[in-house]
Amino acid sequence: MYEAKDYSSLLGMPGFSDTLLKNHFTLYQGYVTNTNKLLELLSELAKAGKGSSPEFAELKRRFGWEFNGMRLHEYYFENLGGSGQLNPSSPLTQKLVKEFGSVQNWEVDFKAVGAMRGIGWVILYQDDLTGRLFNAWINEHDVGHLSGCRPLLIMDVFEHAFMIDYGLKRADYIQAFFKNIKWEAVEKRL
Asked: What's the pTM value of the predicted model, to 2 decimals?
């Protein structure tokens, strides 16, 4: 089970009222609570043999929203409370200069993304494959990815992955997939 982290050390932070922060902490705690509730419900449904039920499917879809809400808030709170000064000789500074031309160029871009109309998140990402940095807008946090999680085992269940060979028999495709997993590759991702 996940436990809500204590971010009360942020209280008194310049530019953020305690009321705002306390409300935000409460919202975050709700994501933690709902992530745990969903994990319990999904486990109960699976144990009861209802893993293919519509209820299971909808709860599974909802899990991404709650989990990502929890994790993105943790990242957010954990990158608050500092001096706001980037060390000019840090590896991050060097990467920002390499990718954006200067820290100031990166900051202009990041702020411009944050000023876009709509609700969502602005995230500085590092592409694990290339090491490149880029700023991204995340409109909603429930698009299915689990923030901060490294993909270990991936199975494509779009129709293009099985229709030609299995028609509508997705269960047969899944069985074939499991027979062909290269576990060494999965273990290397761990």
From this structure: 0.81
